[in-house]
Amino acid sequence: MNADPSVQLRLLDVQALDVKLDQLAHRRATVPEAVTAQELAAEHKEISDAVGAVETELADLGREQRKADADVEQVRSRRDRDEKRLQAGQVGSPRDLENLQREIESLTKRQSDLEDAELEVMERVEESGKRQQELQARQAEIAGKLSVAEQARDASYAQIDTEISASHTERALTAEGIGADLLGLYEKRRAQFGGVGAAALRNRRCEGCRMEINASDLQKFAGSPPELVLRCEECGRILVRTAQSGLPGA
C-alpha cells in the first residue's frame, strides 16, 4: 500500500487523537464522583428498604396493639359489670355469689395478663418508632450527600463530554484526505493491538511495541520508496517514518 509521506504522518496525529479519546472514555467510566454516587445510591436503597421494613413492622404492631387494647377493654368491661352486680347485691344464693367472686378473680388475672401483653406491644412500638426515626434521619442525610455527589458527577461528565466532542471534531478534520484503504488498515490494526494501529519509527525503534528494528529490516526500509506504507515486523502495526527514524543513509 502506498500513501504520501505527509498523509502517513497525519495518521500519527489521528492515532494520537484516538489515544486521547480512549483516555477520555476511560476517565468518564471511572469518574470518582460517579463511584461515590453509586456507593451512596446503594446505601440509600439499603436504608430505604430498612425504612420500609420498619414501616411494615409498625403497621403490624399497630394492629396487634389495637387488638390487645380491645381484649383488655373487653375483659375490663366484663369485670366491671360483675363487680357492680356484686356490690349491688344482685346475687341471691351463696353458690352464685361464690361463682361470681371466682369469675371476678379470674377476670382480674386475665386482665393483668392482657395488660402485660399490651404493655409489651407498646414497648415494641416505641422501639420500632425510635428505629424508624433514626433510619429516616440517616436516609435524609444520605439523600443529601447523594444529591451533591450526583451534581459533582454530572459536572465531571459535562466537562469530559465537552473534551470528547472537541476531540472527535478535531479527529474528523485530521482524518480528511487520508485514503479509505489506509484508514481502514489503520482501524483494523488498531482493533487488533489495543487501540494502537500506527506507530512512529524513531531511533530505529517501533514506538508501538518498543522493539528495536533489526538491521536487515532497517536496510529494507531505507531502500523502499517514501510512499510505501511500512509495517513493523514484530507487532504488525503500521510503521510511519519520521525525521528521527535513524534509517541507514538518512
Automatic annotation (TrEMBL):
C4-type zinc ribbon domain location: 205-239
Annotated segments matching region Disordered: 62-99
Basic and acidic residues bias: start-end ranges: 62-86
Pfam families, alphabetized: CT398_CC (PF24481), Zn_ribbon_9 (PF02591)
Every CT398-like coiled coil hairpin domain range: 14-194
Gene3D superfamilies: 1.10.287.1490
PANTHER family xref list: PHOSPHOLIPASE C-BETA-2-RELATED, SCAVENGER RECEPTOR CLASS A MEMBER 3
Protein name: Zinc ribbon domain-containing protein
Species name: Tenggerimyces flavus
